[in-house]
């Protein structure tokens, strides 16, 4: 994914089912605006979830379902205290889900 310029009031960044392909770069955590919802499901994204996602501290909704994501679910996702919905279903993650075990909210993996 290349550089994205966002407005100051952006609440929802919905790029789901837009035929995006490639790796999600760690700089996703450096978005100029902190979206509350990040929706990237139904694309052709691959690779692991970048640890930079931890910088999106206002996220309540993170959807990356139906991609080709791999690797372990990073422990930093467990630090997203506002997160209420995490959908990582229909990917190729390996390892345990212990990194998100401390989240008591609605989780789909």
Write a short abstract of this structure:
InterPro entries: Leu-rich_rpt, LRR-RLK, LRR_dom_sf. By secondary structure, this protein is mainly β.
What does this molecule look like?
This is Leucine-rich repeat-containing N-terminal plant-type domain-containing protein. The protein is 0% helix and 26% strand. With 109 residues, it is mainly β. It has one domain: Leucine-rich repeat, LRR (right-handed beta-alpha superhelix) (Alpha-Beta Horseshoe). A 5-stranded parallel sheet has the order 1-3-5-7-9, with no helix packed on it. The mean pLDDT is 85.
Question: What keyword list fits this structure?
Answer:
LRR_dom_sf; five-stranded parallel sheet; 109 residues; leucine-rich repeat; Leucine-rich repeat-containing N-terminal plant-type domain-containing protein; four-stranded parallel sheet; single chain; Leucine-rich repeat, LRR (right-handed beta-alpha superhelix); repeat; Leu-rich_rpt
CATH topology: Leucine-rich repeat, LRR (right-handed beta-alpha superhelix)
Low-confidence stretches: none
Kindly report how far apart the N and C termini lie.
Answer: 23 Å
CA gyration radius, whole angstroms:
13 Å
Main CATH class: Alpha Beta
Order of helices and strands: EEEEEEEEE
Number of strands: 9
| Assigned CATH superfamily | Ribonuclease Inhibitor
Find the structural class using helix and strand composition: mainly beta
Total tally of structural domains: 1
- Report the oligomer: single chain
Number of helices: 0
């Amino acid at each position: 994914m290349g550089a994205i310029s966002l407005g100051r009031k952006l609440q929802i960044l919905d790029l789901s089912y837009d035929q995006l392909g490639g790796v999600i770069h760690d700089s996703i955590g450096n978005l100029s605006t902190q979206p509350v919802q990040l929706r990237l499901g139904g694309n052709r994204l691959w690779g692991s979830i970048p640890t930079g996602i931890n910088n999106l501290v206002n996220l309540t909704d993170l959807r990356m379902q139906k991609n080709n994501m791999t690797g372990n679910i990073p422990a930093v996702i467990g630090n997203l205290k506002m997160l209420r919905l995490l959908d990582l279903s229909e990917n190729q993650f390996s390892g345990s889900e212990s990194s998100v075990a401390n989240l008591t909210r609605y989780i789909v993996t």
